[in-house]
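Exercise 7. Given the encoded structure of a 495-residue chain, write a plausible sequence.
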């Protein structure tokens, strides 16, 4: 039986981290201006509409892109469902602490930002099956447009948002790193900038002029509850898909793929997303966000940057991870460690590489055991499985312990101890290849010789010995001589 082939891990890229840093900043900024500034500054209101069109679709797209590894339900429970419950509870309690009467409706995550975590949890559970459907992206868009006409899709379990934003997740899931390379090499990519700018100006201007609410972009309700007719809602939702995908491709094409001072934040976005909104609720409840000095776009830009820097720092990341680890330790008997995934499963290559190394080490140990047993049975030839064989066949130039030139892993090695550049995954042999090589080696050992006849002949020839045919001929000639012809004394005398 052939082993199930895993999807390739997403290669690490500074571009993706920079992409996430920009998006998490827009998330924070968009939330903080929504409290008061959009009510008093019309320009900021335009910006608010423009950001809301694409920032969460883009975040969901990159989440899908980073969710290619086969999903584990228990892992998603620890890394997504537990944070959802904690995040909703923290947001709810922050309002209770301010003296507000708010119902605890965890199945209706309105008034929080935790709907995204719930949506990501559901996406992860279903994407492996739904991602195989032909034309899934246009089909999911059609379903999302239809869902807006139905009252059944509401805030319960964020059903409306899950359906509306799913096209972005599945598009990211199907997106390949080669596509990013192609987009970045496209010579006419700069034309995307004026197209994006025109759309981001025209759509908010039309909606604000006609007094249309922003709820259609939030996708929390159907068209009627957003104050729109079905045709208006379908058109605006189609425009959201158009603008969002154009902006996503524009950012992928133009953002720098180099390490910047804030690139590291892209690996710690979960702490930012988890803590920023409850803190804003408390700041607004304490009138901190209502003072005149805070009704300034530049001040709120600085405050948003401070949120990103502080909540994206290592101490906050450790705090967040420790809380999840403690809860996982209490609830789950085994495999309790939870790592920060930055809102989505990070590049996922470490675990895969470590698993291959672990399997290789096990095979090395088994091979060494078989080698020791062969020596005890009287086999005089020793095969060093950690080195190249004596002139091996062309299809076996590497032994068990020299797969891709990687040193054996010690028992203390963990996935975190293995650097990214230690293993070139494209050069790693599959488990099936290793097992096949082990079986062939074991079969040769059972025949009493680890090297086949051709290899021995070749090695003897290189050592200066006669070919087997000539050796046999000489033995035959010697056997035909009379016994006295083999008298060594006479041979010495003749010499």
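Solution.
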């Amino acid at each position: 039986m052939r082993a199930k082939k895993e999807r390739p891990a997403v290669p690490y890229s500074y571009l993706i981290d920079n992409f996430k840093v920009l998006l998490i900043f827009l998330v924070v900024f968009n939330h903080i201006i929504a409290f008061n500034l959009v009510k008093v500054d019309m320009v900021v209101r335009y910006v608010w509409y423009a950001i809301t069109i694409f920032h969460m679709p883009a975040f969901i797209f990159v989440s899908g892109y980073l969710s290619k590894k086969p999903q584990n339900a228990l892992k998603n429970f620890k890394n997504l469902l537990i944070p959802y419950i904690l995040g909703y509870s923290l947001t709810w309690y922050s309002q209770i602490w301010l003296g507000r009467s708010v119902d605890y409706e965890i199945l209706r995550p309105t008034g929080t930002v935790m709907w995204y975590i719930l949506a990501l949890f559901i996406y992860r559970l279903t994407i492996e099956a739904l991602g195989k459907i032909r034309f899934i992206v246009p089909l999911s868009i059609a379903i999302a447009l239809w869902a807006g006409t139905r009252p059944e899709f509401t805030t319960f379990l964020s059903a409306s948002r899950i359906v509306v934003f799913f096209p972005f997740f599945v598009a990211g899931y199907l997106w390949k790193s080669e596509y990013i390379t192609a987009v970045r090499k496209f010579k006419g990519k700069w034309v995307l900038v004026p197209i994006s700018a025109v759309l981001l100006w025209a759509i908010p201007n039309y909606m604000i002029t006609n007094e249309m609410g922003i709820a259609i972009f939030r996708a929390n309700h159907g068209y009627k509850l957003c104050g729109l007719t079905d045709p208006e809602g379908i058109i605006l939702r189609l425009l959201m898909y158009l603008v969002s995908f154009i902006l996503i491709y524009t950012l992928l094409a133009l953002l720098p793929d180099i390490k910047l001072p804030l690139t590291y934040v892209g690996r710690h976005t979960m702490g930012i997303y988890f803590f920023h909104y409850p803190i804003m609720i408390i700041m607004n409840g304490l009138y901190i966000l209502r003072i005149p000095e805070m009704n300034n776009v530049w001040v709120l830009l600085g405050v948003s940057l401070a949120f990103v820097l502080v909540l994206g720092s290592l101490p906050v990341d450790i705090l967040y991870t420790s809380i999840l680890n403690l809860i996982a330790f209490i609830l789950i008997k085994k495999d309790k460690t939870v790592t920060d995934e930055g809102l989505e499963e990070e590049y996922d290559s470490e675990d895969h590489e470590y698993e291959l190394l672990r399997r290789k080490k096990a095979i090395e140990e088994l091979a060494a055991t078989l080698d020791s047993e062969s020596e005890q049975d009287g086999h005089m030839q020793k095969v060093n499985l950690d080195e190249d064989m004596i002139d091996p066949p062309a299809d076996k130039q590497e032994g068990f312990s020299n797969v891709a030139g990687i040193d054996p892993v010690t028992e203390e090695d963990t996935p975190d101890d293995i650097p990214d550049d230690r293993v070139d995954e494209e050069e790693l042999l599959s488990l099936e290849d290793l097992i096949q090589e082990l079986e062939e080696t074991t079969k040769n050992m059972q025949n009493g010789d680890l090297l086949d006849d051709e290899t021995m002949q070749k090695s003897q020839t290189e050592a200066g010995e006669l070919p087997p045919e000539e050796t046999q001929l000489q033995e035959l000639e010697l056997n035909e001589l009379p016994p006295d012809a083999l008298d060594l004394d006479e041979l010495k005398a003749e010499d």
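Remark. The first helix runs from residue 14 to 35. Students should compare their own answers with the one above.
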